[in-house]
Amino acid sequence: MRALTFEYKGIAGSELAAANAIAKRACVLEHRIVRLPDLRESADIPGFRPSGLPPSYIPLRNGIFYAFAASFAEETGAINIIGGHNKDDTEVFADVRPEFFDSLQKAFRGGSRILRTNSLKIVRPLERMRKPAVIRLGATLGVPFELTWSCHRDSEEHCWSCDGCLARERCFREAGIVDPLAPPKMEKIT
Ligand SMILES: [Zn+2]
Question: How far is the CA of 8 from the centre of ligand 1 (A)?
Answer without folding.
Answer: 18
